[in-house]
Amino acid sequence: MKVLWLTAHPEPRSLNGSLHRDGVRFLEEQGHEIRSSDLYAMKFNPVVTADDFSHAEGERLIVGHAAQEAVRQGALAPDITAEHEKLSWADTLIVQFPLWWYGMPAILKGWFDRVFVGGFAFGVHDAQGRQLRYGEGALAGKRAMVVVSAGAREASLGPRGINGALDDLLFPLQHGTLWYAGIDVVPPLLVHGADRMDAAAYACHANALRVRLKDLPHTEPLPFRHQNGGDYDEDLVLRPELSPHITGLPAHYRIES
Fold first, then answer.
1. I need a surface site. Which of 1, 3, 28, 136 has the fewest CB within 10 A?
2. Tens digits of per-residue pLDDT, 80-113?
């Protein structure tokens, strides 16, 4: 594999920092190629501005249009271009972060805002003019795995847990961002009890990470529905005969009969 490991934690001596180093070391020992984007260490700027697109001062900024034009003209900011080069090189993306207020740290959200721009991560059309997204598109053929730490107990992030099911919490990232851009997403790895972890618990989680990384090339991805596979109507609403008694996020997973 050619792996881009994207990580976002401000403390290199943290649990996340240790798992990142252990995971990279394991992949290298297995013969894989690794590049990392450690966003805090890089002091990555997470804020979208007109400077990202070499946009003329004084003109109204329409972000989507400006981004596509900048991609077409090769005029994106150098730090965005550097991340594009890493993503183009990689066939696998690891996204690692602590769960803060039910989402990603702001610096990681900003990385997606600035890097997953139209003309690079989406905005591709087929010969019939259909947008190729949700399983197709610019980044199709790659795969990703989310590694997320949380202070919560494992059961509290389950189907009936007070914190909500993990796949529901990660739906905006796994489905609305990665799958939207065409990337196959394998089930996430939860590192639970992060605030109360002793050496024995860390060893258990580190071993679980190694197992998941070893199996990553062969792990079945989450069974998200393709936009253009016939499951959705012209308004991109799931056809009524499919999973008729299921609504909300679970409806967008294929159910094998």
1. 28
2. 999 999 999 999 999 999 999 999 999 999 999 9
Residue whose pair of structure tokens reads 């190629």 in the numeric block: 33
Residues 130 and 250 in one domain: no
Compute CA distances 251 → 164, 237, 243, whole Å.
Answer: 17, 10, 7
Do 108 and 202 share a domain, yes or no? Answer: yes
Please name which of 175, 251, 133 lies closest in space to residue 242, comparing C-alpha atoms: 251
**Does residue 231 carry a pLDDT above 90?**
yes
End-to-end Cα spacing for the chain: 33
Residues 241 and 128 grouped into a single domain: no
Same domain, 159 and 256: no
Residue 138 CA to residue 136 CA, distance in Å, equals 7
What is the reported pTM?
0.94
Question: 36: which 2 tokens?
Answer: 């990392």
Please give the tally of structural domains in the chain. 2
pLDDT in tens, 34-84: 999 999 999 999 999 999 998 777 789 889 888 999 999 999 999 999 999
